[in-house]
Design brief:
CATH superfamily: Aldolase class I
Order of helices and strands: HEHEHEHEHEEHEHEHEHH
Radius of gyration: 16 Å
Number of strands: 9
Low-confidence stretches: none
Keywords: Carbohydrate metabolism, Lyase, Schiff base
GO molecular function: 2-dehydro-3-deoxy-phosphogluconate aldolase activity
Distance between the termini: 30 Å
InterPro entries: Aldlse_KDPG_KHG, Aldolase_TIM, KDPG/KHG_AS_1, KDPG/KHG_AS_2
Helix content: 40-55%
CATH topology: TIM Barrel
Mean pLDDT: 97
Enzyme class: lyase
Family: Belongs to the KHG/KDPG aldolase family.
Structural class: alpha/beta
Number of domains: 1
Largest sheet: 6 strands, parallel
Number of helices: 10
């Protein structure tokens, strides 16, 4: 997969809904009902972070949910990429970008939403052919004002800001012309997941799906 093909696919996925749920799932039993609730609420693109021992099994379960587009977050090494693809992930998300990670994603035909926090990082990825990036950590890197400033000289790059995005500030990001969607964890709070309140999560997803820039 070429960088241009990867970016085109990433753009399609990011365009599915204004919010991409960023999920940390500890129990595989929660995977399918959680994905079903989020998809039913209007958030089909799901990022399962590789931060728990269950993450790869969770991806495998969620990949079977109709209407869902499941990706793997927190990709750091080439082995992460291979494991994620084998589990059924259809896209990858990384907090940053290294040559080895990018090469692994291209070899595995896994579209990558690579992280960038500065203009230089974004320019290096653009130079390689990637024009859809993750802005991370969004709030810690200056928030919406910083992303707006980066967008002025680099209008050809679209971003998915993640890290500190909340219902209170989501529209600050989504209203920017260089923001295609945002990543957020608030749509699947751990207390609702543990208690199995799938209706509550679906309601949060519905509210998030209604956010538009």
């Amino acid at each position: 997969m070429t960088p241009q093909e990867a970016s085109a696919r990433a753009r399609e996925i990011c365009s599915l809904a204004p919010i991409v749920p960023v999920l940390v799932v500890k129990d595989t039993a929660h995977a399918r009902p959680l994905a079903e609730a989020l998809v039913a609420g209007g958030l089909p693109a799901l990022e399962v972070t590789l931060r728990t021992p269950a993450a790869l099994d969770v991806i495998a379960e969620m990949a079977q949910v109709p209407g869902g587009v499941v990706g793997a977050g927190t990709l750091v090494t080439p082995q992460d990429v291979k494991n994620a693809k084998a589990a059924g992930a259809t896209f990858g998300v990384s907090p940053g970008a290294t040559d080895a990670l990018i090469a692994a994603c291209e070899a595995e035909d896994l579209p990558l939403l690579a992280g960038a926090a500065t203009a230089s990082e974004a320019m290096r990825l653009l130079e390689r052919g990637y024009d859809v990036l993750k802005f991370f950590p969004a709030e810690a890197s200056g928030g919406a004002p910083a992303l707006k400033a980066i967008g002025a000289p680099l209008p050809q790059i679209s971003f998915c800001p993640t890290g500190g995005v909340s219902p209170e500030n989501a529209m600050d990001y989504l209203s920017l012309p260089n923001v295609i969607c945002a990543g957020g964890s608030w749509v699947a709070p751990s207390d609702l997941v543990v208690s199995g309140d799938w209706a509550g999560i679906q309601a949060l997803a519905k509210d998030a799906a209604a956010l538009r820039g």
